[in-house]
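Thanks for the sequence, V.! I ran Replicative helicase inhibitor G39P N-terminal domain-containing protein right away. Repeating your input here for the record:
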Amino acid sequence: MTYEEAVEVLETMEELYPGKFKLTKRRVHFLIPRLEEMEFDGVMGKLFNHASAYPFPPTIADIAHHLPEQNENLEQVKQWEEEAAKVPEEVKQRFEEMFEELVRKVSS
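Predicted structure:
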């Protein structure tokens, strides 16, 4: 999330919990970088869910929402599948025949 969105999260917490959550320079200095690592919509959703269930302010861990990390292996498999889809059927058939012949030779 952006700096402005992180500030919005903290201001919303202060508004939702008047007298229980006070923004100070020190708190802002500490929390903004942690919030910037997170996803704004997910954090706000968790904040509103927390506010509807609990009378006390959440910790950052309570409202943390990170986007899932990109799986590079999965991306590579998708790329290979796309490349394989472009190979003509005749080539695939010939490869399979050659592979089966190789397996027969090695296993004999």
